[in-house]
Amino acid sequence: MTCAIAKQNSIPSRKDNLEREKYNTVYASQQVLTYHRDSRSWCSAMQACIWGNQHLAIVNSETLNLASEAIIPDGHMAWLGGSDIYSEGTFVWIDSQRVSAGYQSWGPGEPNNHDGLEHCMDAGYQGPYYWNDSPCDKSFNYVCQIGTVREVSAMYAVLSFSDTIPTYNSRTSFWNAKKACENKGMRLARVESEEEFKILQSKLPRNSNEKYWIGTKHEKCAGITHDQLEFTECTSTSLPYICEVVSPYSVEVSNESPKIHENDNLQIGCTAKGFPLPDVFWYKDGERITEQTDPNVHQSIGSASAILKIHRAQMGDAGQYRCYATNTAIDFELRVFGLLHIEGRISSY
Ligand SMILES: [Ca+2]
Ligand SMILES: [Ca+2]
Question: Is the Cβ–Cβ distance between 53 and 11 less than 8 Å?
């Protein structure tokens, strides 16, 4: 069996998926995993990830597996980016690395190549933490991965077109367009690379021959059409424009695998980027940390950041801590790290 990769013109909207599920994006180890609920065969899932400028997830570390576990709902099966399509029994990630050469999280007794038909990797059969092999033509949800996080605006942005929103002043000069977006808590949609240009272009209204104001790196006055990006005279030209809200695209924690002893203190910072600036909060075992959560555990919340503070840790403070970032573009994003382990002190007499 082989998977043929077809090209698709329109990129599936990330926002569409987000509206169905709050937690469908996880940041871990500079990687982004996204969970998709339009169940498909393994090959079709691979294509769908590629259409979204991603690839099926390569879950080659404990951190990534915890992240993957966090977005796959209990009781659901989701494709991951491993298969033994090409050589029975030798599972290979889609970047050609052998699965057996690195981190593995197969469920007990898996992969078992049941009935000689199971060649594609999924998670969820024995809980989302564990992997299994299944027949590739089954329909499952799937986990995609964005390799490197950088400031890609158009990919993550929620766009507003001034000529489709009645309350907007639909056509105006570049500078007024910029101000109009800012007044609405957005910014003029930015294009900083060929890739972003293509993404933004794919989101332009169909059958529109309009040119729209957008922002660029150089603060030049640029207009985008279906065919090209053009630099235009800033003030005397009157064009419709595109504003964007950029979801949190990077959430960083200062310590990904904390281990402390009883009575130790610990602080972990978490910062997020996005536009408008995201609100950031720490959660412990799924619940937002408040004054009532635990007398030793606090968070101090700043601008697009939050510091987790554990004072004189007790064994009961161990658990899963997560940092969430949110702004108006997206309900939640989260950054996961492993469990906080607290070791008891050995007392000697
Ligand atoms: Ca197999
Ligand atoms: Ca199996």
Answer: yes
What local confidence, expressed as pLDDT, does residue 47 receive? 79
pLDDT of residue 177: 93
Of 2, 3, 7, 4, nearest to 52 by C-alpha is 7
Give me the residues near ligand 2 (ion), CB cutoff below 5 Å.
Answer: 110, 112, 114, 118, 132-133
pLDDT at 347: 39
Reply yes or no on whether the pLDDT at 20 is more than 60: no
Ligand nearest 84 Cα, by number?
1
User: Which of residues 117 and 18 earns the better pLDDT score?
Assistant: 117
What does the pLDDT average to over 17-46? 74
Q: To which CATH superfamily is domain 254-340 assigned?
A: Immunoglobulins (2.60.40.10)
**Residue 116, C-beta contacts closer than 8 angstroms, at least 6 positions apart:** none
How far does the centroid of ligand 2 lie from the alpha carbon of residue 289, in Å?
39
Q: What is the domain class of 153-247 according to CATH?
A: alpha beta
Nearest ligand to the CA of 126 is 2
The CATH number assigned to the domain with range 20-146 reads: 3.10.100.10
CA 120 to ligand 2 center in whole angstroms: 9
- Hey, which residues does 244 pair with through a beta bridge? 159, 187
Please report the pLDDT score of residue 147 as a whole number: 61
Q: What is the distance in A from the centroid of ligand 1 to the CA of 94?
A: 15
pLDDT of residue 16: 39
pLDDT at 335 over 60: no
* C-alpha–C-alpha distance, residues 176 and 180, integer Å: 6
